[in-house]
Design a protein that fits this description.
Blueprint: E1 19-23, E2 27-33, E3 36-41, E4 45-47, E5 50-52, H1 59-77, E6 83-88, E7 91-95, E8 113-114, E9 117-124, H2 127-134, E10 156-166, H3 177-184, H4 188-209, E11 214-225, E12 231-234, E13 243-247, H5 248-252, H6 262-270, H7 273-283, H8 295-313
Antiparallel strand pairs: 1-2, 2-3, 3-7, 4-5, 6-7, 8-11, 9-10, 9-11, 11-12, 11-13
């Protein structure tokens, strides 16, 4: 019988480390392969398209884990999405699509591309919708209210309000339907299908979170077209960054208690920074730098994010090591 070799068996070559591609407002994007990306969430925070010079402990981990929770919901609903798996406390692997400002440049029937729009559905009067109502830019009848009705902050809309804004511009810009269809390379039938998909996801989200004492006020989603031409949900959604949530019991008592990044926006509104920023943007002047959050508010915002995670998912939050 021949002697057995004592040499170790050859091991597979290690996979190359993901390659850094770009940094967004709150996450970094890495290339894993031609068909796969890795999102690495940070503890950064931004409002009004401005990066705040403060870090929020545990924020990145809550975003990654909340997003994974909702992509699992999409799987149960049979809604196509790009999520593959979590790759650590603050990272997730996703299917890759092309990012181009004008998808029509890819051909007459483009595939495998990020739709350069953000899709927003509103269920209550809040946020920028309230700003537009106060400024007289949105009439009550356009929201489904009777003529002459004066909408109040926090009032539930008679029907969901579906809007789209730009995605790849420095500052998000509200679009009308002809602009949205032209920029996205979608037709009206595809846009209607996207609306129904988002409403179905939101209905399932609401059925989960309302028993845990939250109301889904509004939210935004991003979509892409895959290599087969199927529309799928991408990026993240349903977190305290993308969506607005209120405490249900407080709302029934006439108060709107924020469980979202709106809590941070309100700080900059009451401090006067938002008015300064708006005036600068309207006049074309240089935008004022956004100040850091006070240390006590940083701690409060961190607790907000972990609390929102627990109330959205129904799971306790215990940090698993993410500190970036």
């Amino acid at each position: 019988m021949p002697a057995r070799s004592s040499a170790p068996a050859p091991s597979a070559a290690p996979s190359p480390a993901p390659k850094y591609l770009r940094r967004g407002k709150v996450k970094e994007v890495y290339e894993v392969s031609p068909t796969e990306l890795e999102f690495r969430f940070t503890n950064d925070i931004s409002v009004f398209d401005k990066h705040i010079p403060s870090e929020i402990p545990h924020k990145g981990e809550t975003l990654a884990r909340t997003a994974a929770h909702w992509f699992e919901l999409c799987g149960r609903l049979k809604v196509p999405h790009h999520f593959l798996r979590l790759a650590g406390p603050m990272a997730m692997r996703v299917r890759r699509v092309q990012v181009v400002p004008k998808p029509r440049t890819l051909g007459p029937h483009p595939k495998n591309f990020l739709i350069p729009l953000e899709f927003i559905v509103r269920y209550y009067v809040a946020g920028s919708l309230w700003d537009r109502i106060k400024a007289g830019k949105v009439r009550a009848e356009a929201l489904g209210f009777p003529s002459g009705h004066a909408p109040a902050y926090g009032e539930r809309l008679p029907e969901p309000m579906f809007e789209v804004t730009t995605k790849l511009e420095p500052v998000d810009r509200l679009l009308d339907w002809p602009e949205a269809l032209e920029l996205s390379a979608l037709d009206r039938r595809e846009m209607d299908s996207i609306r129904e998909m988002i409403l179905r996801i939101d209905a399932a989200m609401a059925s989960e979170i309302e028993p845990r004492g939250l109301l889904h006020v509004d939210g935004k989603k991003e979509l892409a077209v895959d290599t087969e031409g199927t529309t799928m949900v991408v990026d993240t959604f349903g977190t305290a960054d993308e969506d607005r949530f209120w405490d249900r019991d407080a709302y029934q008592r006439g108060r709107q208690v924020e469980f979202s990044k709106e809590f941070v926006r309100q700080h900059y509104r009451t401090s006067g920074y938002f008015d300064l920023l708006t005036k600068a943007r309207d006049s074309g002047a240089a935008e004022p730098p956004i100040p850091a959050l006070p240390p006590l508010l940083v701690d409060e915002v961190s607790r907000l994010y972990t609390t929102v995670f627990q109330r959205l998912t129904g799971r306790p939050f215990a940090p698993t090591g993410g500190t970036a």
